[in-house]
TrEMBL record:
Record GO terms (molecular function): ATP binding; ATP hydrolysis activity; L-isoleucine transmembrane transporter activity; L-phenylalanine transmembrane transporter activity; L-valine transmembrane transporter activity
Protein name: Branched-chain amino acid transport system ATP-binding protein
Gene source species: Saccharothrix ecbatanensis
Domain ABC transporter: from-to ranges: 5-245
Domain of life: Bacteria
UniProt keyword Metal-binding present: no
GO BP terms, alphabetized: D-alanine transmembrane transport; L-alanine transport; L-isoleucine import across plasma membrane; L-valine import across plasma membrane
Amino acid sequence: MTSVVQVRAVTVAFGGLRALSGIDLDIAQGERLAILGPNGAGKTTLFNVIAGDIAPTAGAVVIRGQDCTHRPSRHRPRLGLARTYQKARAFAGLTVRENIYLAIAGRRGRHRALWPSSVDRRLRDEAAEVAARVWLSGQLDAVAGELAHGQRRQLELAMAIAAQPDVLLLDEPASGLSRGERERLVELLESLDDRLTLLLIEHDMDIAFRIAQRVVVMADGVQVMAGSPEQVRADPHVHRIYLGTEATA
Ligand SMILES: Nc1ncnc2c1ncn2[C@@H]1O[C@H](COP(=O)(O)OP(=O)(O)OP(=O)(O)O)[C@@H](O)[C@H]1O
């Protein structure tokens, strides 16, 4: 098995607080991995370390065989990695179309100039195609800052997809979405290329269990268990620390 992402004994301390303590994780190409855990478990911190948004206090992150532990996030697109954040980060003053253009232009860290002349037919078609995949065809000329919450999350996803990553990290993509939007999100995630490696933090267990092949459960900065969705669903320890009554619902 070739690991696309290797996390080795990663520890992150914020002052006296250990957000992560010696996390090890191997993620295979094309794997769909969900990370579950209660608030404060360290899930986003783990994403931040993998995405280069923070450097770990100890340990290493290797992406496609390259040690990226102390490489900042701007190097990640070159390695084919894209992520979304819990709070959407699209440019509020730009339209949906323009935000998608920027994501396309920044693909693999190659920041092409975005002068009007460079916005050719191909780019326009591609932006429209990406918008259609996240059901934003009707909002291409809407200003991002004026989109409804669910649509802003869809735009965030569109921008990540437009980057054509090999490894995609999604931080709670379903948060704040309506039931219908959640269904569409699952459809979208299921439609992604098999070769894409997907890491998902998700509080909606139904979505996590439907999308993931493997689930890692974290609590207090450590991995509590890992297994198939069925194994995790059936684990009494996981019920106690996280799933609570929801598991039996
Ligand atoms: N920049 C920071 N400075 C100080 N403490 C932080 C920082 N980022 C996270 N923490 C703390 O680290 C711990 C883990 O936080 P993290 O956001 O990774 O958890 P999480 O599992 O993603 O939680 P949630 O589900 O609420 O998003 C928490 O106690 C949090 O308060």
